[in-house]
Amino acid sequence: MPHTQAELPTPPTAGDTPQRASARSIAWAALGVGALASIPSWFAGFSSDDLSHRLLLEGALPGYAVGWLGLYDFTSPSLPTGALIERGLLPWFTQPELSLRFLRPISSFSLALDDALFGRNALAAHLHSTLWMLGLAFAAGQLYRRWLSARAAVLASILLAASPVFGIPLSWLASRHTLIAATFGALSLWSWLRADGAHGDGVRGDGGSGARWRALSLACLAASLLSSESGLVTIALLVGHAVASAGLRRGLRRAALPIGTASAYLVAYAALGYGARGSAFYVSPFEAPLAYLEGAALGVPALASELLLGLPSVAAGMGGRPVLLVLAAVGLLAAVGAYLWQRALGSEIEPSERRALAGACAGALLGLVALTGAPVSGRVLPLPALATAALAAVLLERTWRLVRRKPGAARATAQTQAPRGRWRWWIALGLGALFQLGLSPLMRLALPGQIAASGATQEKLAREADVGACTRGGSLYLVNGSDPTLTLYAPAALLFYTPEKAGAERFRALSMAPAEQRLTRTAPETLLLEVIGEERPSTAFEGLFRAPGSPLEPGLRVSLPELTATVEATRFGLFTRARFESPSAFAATCLLVWRNGKLESEALPAVGASLVVQHQPGPMGL
Predict the structure, then answer these.
(1) Which residue from 34, 48, 295 is spatially nearest to 141, judged by alpha carbons?
(2) Contact between residue 547 and residue 278 where contact means Cβ atoms under 8 Å apart
(3) Crossing angle of helices 23-38/440-464, nearest 10°?
(4) What is the pTM of this model?
(5) What are the backbone angles phi and psi of residue 475, rounded to the nearest 5°?
(6) What angle, 0 to 180 degrees and rounded to 10, lies between the N-to-C axes of helices 351-369 and 289-309?
(7) Model confidence at 17, in pLDDT bands (50, 70, 90)?
(8) Pairwise CA distance, residues 362 & 20, whole Å
């Protein structure tokens, strides 16, 4: 809602300037609301990668030992991709060069500590996650106390503590790494402000004290980066603060130490072989810069839709590109609207607040670009939410103060006295409150239920699965594994919940095609699997195992310990017909199909006979 210069609200008088909030009021707001909003996540149980992590820590996967610090190093040098394919832990069509290695030793250690202290007590582990979230909320509250007026600081603490961005990290233990990185990131920024003596008055601290705070800030920055790749947002926030406070050139010079720390981290990260390669699911800005920028163009505004409106950005990963486009469009409109709103408020926002918001929001925007190499999901947003919660609080609090100002008062303006001008502000206030105080907390409370339902589905899958005769040796072959719950997590669920059913030597998914398929036994030792239909649909998760530049091609042979897979026909780089040959004529082999909501055992077809398997969406709807 743009206005002319003459219509801009007049600046507050000295007597009207709000006082800074007390540390106690900030703490009560952040910790109280954060704890209450986190209660649903305490009962989310274990889900997906949580099962694999617990099995690794319990030593239930012989030969796959990564230690307490390497739970996120999925293709570690001790068990590279080729070995994982041979053992059935990765599908046969996985690109041999696939590398999924993430440097998160601090977060990994926190999960190992859960296992050592609590075993399989999921409630205790989720309470541990809540402590990290409360630490972040407290640190953010101290930043708000320095940046904002009293009421805005308290409101910002409440908005952050109730934000939906915590829904997944609090409910899914494997996603705790973003919480830990954000907590250390907020502490790093707070320590840096202490080093600058930035109490809103621009006064710098004394040299010795400043050096100690700066050292603490760099240590927290390093901890943030060693907790998660999302810790890169910390760099962006530090740079944004420095530039907003001192201008571009001076700000970059003042942020030289954090920039240097980030540069050293990225060099070491690449030199040690970490990162994702050989996958369409993850995109590296160094290996595919154009694809990365294309993803960021949609990913950044889609993530903004969750930050500003509370919309679940994770829906983009489930609904595909159409949902991503809608979220991106809505997020872009919301970002433009927030910019115009703060501009229309004019001098109602104090200069010190405006500088702080400009630095934080610019840093958050830059940080979002660094978070779009993976599928869009709000679980990476705890640290950017620190900035958007402050912006939303200022917009809501200043607009509320403005609309309650009586017409004719000394500080009333033409736009607040005129009925149309006042109603515009009421509409903006109502919409802002609807999304920030209505939809966002509701999504925060709803997301844990979805994670809990996913975990319960995986337990049900294991308990109801019929694995046939392959309970003590043999090979389990899943014909239709389009849903990642089946391909990626069914083996872990079987071993975690029903170890008596997990005696097979290996579990292999023959296909991830979300389509009807026909399995024909052309000879005693040969099975032919065909995807039926003109089209060859796929899911995003099928792209996890191959990069777009390395499509499957006819004639490709993959030799495995007990069989050989040969690609006979492809479409769009995905197989439509594959031949499987077993020297033992598939002795001690059990077929599994996903049918009627569970895994069912199916007899091998006789020679010359076929088995047609209809596509039925799995537990995740894929």
Answers:
(1) 34
(2) yes
(3) 30
(4) 0.91
(5) -125, 135
(6) 130
(7) very low
(8) 24
| CA 615/CA 594 separation, integer angstroms | 8
What is the rounded distance in angstroms from the CA atom of residue 108 to the CA atom of residue 56? Answer: 12
Q: How far apart are CA 211 and CA 205, in angstroms?
A: 9
pLDDT value at position 409? 53
Using CA atoms, how far apart are residues 286 and 558, in angstroms rounded to an integer?
A: 29
Give the integer Cα–Cα distance in Å for 401 and 9: 11
Using CA atoms, how far apart are residues 563 and 303, in angstroms rounded to an integer?
A: 44
CA distances from 601 to 91, 481, 595, 598, 619 (A): 20, 14, 10, 10, 18
Task: Say which residue the tokens 């981290």 belong to.
Answer: 265
Q: Take residue 524 and report the two structure tokens written for it.
A: 């005693």
What are the two backbone dihedrals, phi and then psi, of residue 401, each rounded to the nearest 5 degrees? -65, -35
The pLDDT tens digits for 176-222 are 999 999 999 999 999 999 998 744 434 344 445 788 999 999 999 99
- Quote the Cα angle for 98-99-102, to 5°: 155
Output the pLDDT for position 1. 41
Amino acid, res. 409 = A
Nearest-angstrom CA–CA distance, 112 and 503: 26
**By C-alpha distance, which of 187, 222, 190, 217 is closest to 106?**
222
d(CA 12, CA 402): 11
Half-sphere exposure of 480 (CA within 13 A, CB side): 29
Residue 187: is it exposed, middle or buried by C-beta count within 10 angstroms (0-12/13-18/19+)? buried
Confidence of residue 19 (pLDDT cuts 50, 70, 90): low
- Residue 564 phi/psi, 5-degree rounding, is -120, 130
